[in-house]
Amino acid sequence: APHHDRGPGTSREYSPNANIQVPWPQGTECIARYTFKGTSEQDLPFNKGDVLTIIVVTKDPNWYKAKNTAGREGTIPANYVQKREGVKSGGKLSLMPWFHGKITRDQAERLLNPPETGLFLVRESTNFPGDYTLCVSCEGKVEHYRIIYAKGKLTIDEEGYFENLMQLVEHYSKDADGLCTRLIKPKVEEGTVAAQDEFSRSGWSLNRKDLKLDQVIGKGEFGDVMVGDYRGTKVAVKCIKNDATAQAFIAEASVMTQLRHDNLVQLLGVIVEENGSLYIVTEFMAKGCLVDYLRSRGRTVIDGDALLHFALNVCEAMAYLEANNFVHRDLAARNVLVSDDSIAKVSDFGLTKEASSTQDAAKLPVKWTSPEALREKRFSTKSDVWSYGILLWELYSFGRVPYPKIPLKEVVPRVENGYKMGCPDGCPDVVYNLMTECWNLDPGVRPSFHKLKERLQDISQGIGKRH
Ligand code: ADP
């Protein structure tokens, strides 16, 4: 039988060559690469795949005091775990790094040089638009196989049919099945990084075997959200089956690896399957989405303190994004989730970008997006501040749809003329003032999230005193 991931020796058993390493700071998250049973009382035993957080840096760089997701603490050997880092956004992360788009037959042959049997790529067919060509290096020659798109499926030999290119490549990687060779090594497109490799390298890749999916709890735009169990922790899982859509969600997941805040829905990891399915595993938010929460409970259950608490939760997350130069672009109460202990957390980082990048204004949520972002695609932290003002209005109206009674196509012209929504029933003036400041047509005049947070904290203390 093969070795069972027994893991390397720890420094209690032997002393590795005085490895000078920078100690990991407190709060560093790690993923276990091997199972560690522990040898003393103080040890924290863990299984391969467990997520651990460093809580104390010890004098010995080979050992850390850490905490597991259940809250148990103990000592762990550093060489059994891998530190998690943010996924690098430099190269383009791709699920199909072997896909080269529209290149010619000659270019493909040059790319597969020097020859190496099993080296392959896929290109778009030049002669038959809509079809693809699989190019494989085989004993010094390059073979070109036409992939026909027929009745919604892909096939080379009209015997084996596949839903997408990833499934086709997966199949011929296992077995030549009539080709000159099986597919062994992808010729990766320049500037592209295989998403699978990058998620593993940075410590965010989870094992499908460790994940149990239970039932569907939500319908996302592109796939189901399910509740599940990852090694004893209740989790939410976004399941994306379509390879093209999965590619879009890779961006969302890679943004999430770079962010960590108590008021942001935390990513636990991702699973990328050979067939193109993608699973994004996050913490489970038992009370669901904030709009539904507000609508279903209403003002009889949710008091002013609770509203202010949610407003602050969201503001703190946004102040964190502001400080780190991330722009959310889709802030709205529907994209805020509520945890079991009633903490609001911002989610849905699908459109989140580092501040510098630009974006096509595909399907923007008109009622939440600032005028300058709608008109000139000028997204910034200040356009997030505008959306935050709308979110405050949603909060204090217990989940009403903004701009009630105004037809959608009249919203933008009226807002650009200076129209602002009125104060929701029962909303304190101090909070309404914040909303109107967020809705200043001049983004430069809108308050920062940092400032908003201070103002909300003052309000919350003021209200506390009066009661
Ligand atoms: P999409 O962005 O694809 O539209 P969402 O992220 O909005 O998908 O998820 C759809 C629904 O699934 C949400 O409204 C919510 O009810 C549920 N949901 C999503 N993530 C979680 C989570 N982490 N915990 C609990 N429920 C969730």
UniProtKB/TrEMBL annotation:
Assigned keywords, A-Z: ATP-binding, Cytoplasm, Kinase, Lipoprotein, Myristate, Nucleotide-binding, SH2 domain, SH3 domain, Transferase, Tyrosine-protein kinase
Pfam families linked: PK_Tyr_Ser-Thr, SH2, SH3_1
E.C. number: 2.7.10.2
Ranges where the record places region Disordered: 1-20
SUPFAM superfamilies reported for this sequence: Protein kinase-like (PK-like), SH2 domain, SH3-domain
Entry keyword annotation includes Transport: no
A single MF term (Gene Ontology): ATP binding
Cell compartments where the protein resides: Cytoplasm
Record-linked SMART domains: SH2, SH3, TyrKc
Domain SH2: 98-187
Residues in SH3 domain copies: 25-86
Residues that, per the record, bind ATP: 238
Keyword Cell wall biogenesis/degradation listed: no
Catalytic activity as recorded in UniProt: L-tyrosyl-[protein] + ATP = O-phospho-L-tyrosyl-[protein] + ADP + H(+)
One cellular component (GO) term of this entry: cytoplasm
Source organism, top-level taxon: Eukaryota
Domain Protein kinase positions: 211-467
InterPro entries xrefs: Csk-like_SH2, Kinase-like_dom_sf, Non-receptor_tyrosine_kinases, Prot_kinase_dom, Protein_kinase_ATP_BS, Ser-Thr/Tyr_kinase_cat_dom, SH2, SH2_dom_sf
Top EC class, one word: transferase
Family label: Belongs to the protein kinase superfamily. Tyr protein kinase family.
Name this polypeptide is given: Tyrosine-protein kinase
Organism: Salarias fasciatus (Jewelled blenny)
